[in-house]
Specification:
By secondary structure, the chain is an alpha/beta fold. It has two domains: about 140 residues, Rossmann fold, CATH 3.40.50.2000; about 170 residues, Rossmann fold. The protein is about 35% helix and about 15% strand. The strands form two sheets. Strands 3-2-1-4-5-6 form a six-stranded parallel β-sheet, with helices on both faces. Strand 1, helix 1 and strand 2 form a beta-alpha-beta unit. Helix 1 runs parallel beside helix 6 and helix 8 packs across helix 14. GO terms for molecular function: ADP-heptose-lipopolysaccharide heptosyltransferase activity.
């Protein structure tokens, strides 16, 4: 284990799931070195991620990109000479993490302190001190653990977990009662990894028919999802809050819910890390985000996917068959089971 860590940094994509993994890595460092200055760097959407990590005052959320040279200079001033810098694995097979970010990471890290993940870039062997192989047969969180081990850190926190800023007023504001509702999240931000509006409505109707009458259904989503959410819930007994809740609001609502049903997106990972019963619907891609080693074999997570429809490889299209052909009645029955 390193004798001391004064500063450490990780570069991440500007998404909830990726940043949650970055927080998990740095939280292991923070547990051993609580006085260390720790930061997570992304190119955009820092406001959203700051809201996500509002309960973690020790974690600096930094937005830096070439469009704002001052942000890069500020990053340089604050984190030059970092004892540990970890860049992210490529998001897609055959992809690569951005070269500009790799060069900045190299400039910030002390000699011996830059760790990255294998991808198709020919510059990796020159830039990095240590490279971690990327594997699709292990949980995503295991890559973070491998990076920590490569840096000499023991794994203090075996699985990622999340805390929110407790706010009892949230339930009152949305006229909900703790333990008397489920959260349904149908929106993935991209049609290529989500269910069609028609399929989402089919699931919502199945949930309403299957769940007890005293369990409300809360339909969440971003502001851009509100119109679609209202259409999905038209004439169905459900409360649509899409576009009305901040991330911290949603975290409080999830924490007090009976269960969460969601497509494979950031909201699902928030629910999993908050420890709530979760039923997630996923494409055949990214299955290692839901392997038992991700959140622990005892985590209350159920995954539905039609991987059998992609035996020759994933079919790239809007609303892929591997998620859009999931049996909504089976999903609804599973949600009902975990709410008992």
């Amino acid at each position: 284990m390193p004798a001391s860590i004064r500063k450490a940094l990780t570069f991440r994509a500007s998404s909830i799931g990726d940043c949650l993994m970055g927080k998990y890595l740095l939280e292991n460092v923070h547990t051993r070195y609580p006085q260390a200055r720790l930061g997570i760097v992304m190119a955009g959407r820092a406001g959203m991620i700051r809201d996500l990590f509002a309960a973690y005052p020790w974690l600096e959320v930094i937005e830096a990109n070439r469009r704002n040279p001052r942000s890069v200079l500020s990053l340089w001033r604050n984190f030059y000479g970092s004892d540990l810098v970890v860049t992210q694995y490529a998001g897609k097979k055959g992809g690569r993490f951005g070269l500009a970010s790799k060069l900045i990471a190299r400039a910030l890290a002390k000699k011996g302190g830059l760790i990255g993940f294998s991808d198709t870039s020919r510059w990796n062997s020159i830039l990095y001190d240590r490279l971690i192989p990327v594997r699709s047969d292990i949980a995503v969180a295991e890559h973070e653990r491998a990076a920590l081990r490569a840096a000499g850190f023991p794994i203090v926190l075996p699985f990622p977990a999340l805390e929110c800023v407790q706010n009892a007023a949230v339930l009152t504001a949305f006229r909900l009662e703790a333990g008397k509702y489920i959260v349904a999240h149908f929106f993935s931000g991209a049609a290529g990894r989500g269910m069609s509006p028609e399929k989402s409505r089919e699931l919502l109707i199945a949930l309403r028919r299957t769940l007890p009458e005293d369990i409300s259904i809360v339909v969440s989503g971003a502001r851009a999802d509100r119109e679609s959410a209202l259409a999905i819930a038209n004439d169905v007994e459900a409360k649509v809050i899409a576009g009305e809740a901040t991330l911290q609001d949603m975290m409080n609502l999830i924490q007090h819910s009976r269960a969460v049903v969601s497509v494979d997106t950031g909201m699902a990972h928030i629910a999993a890390q908050l420890g709530r019963p979760l039923v997630v619907m996923s494409t055949c891609l990214g299955r290692n985000w839901w392997f038992p080693e991700q959140y622990g074999a005892s985590a209350p997570v159920s995954v539905f996917s039609r991987n059998d429809l992609c035996t020759s490889g994933h079919v790239y299209k809007d609303y892929p068959v591997c998620i859009n052909e999931i049996d909504v009645k089976e999903v609804a029955l599973r949600v009902a089971a975990v709410t008992q």
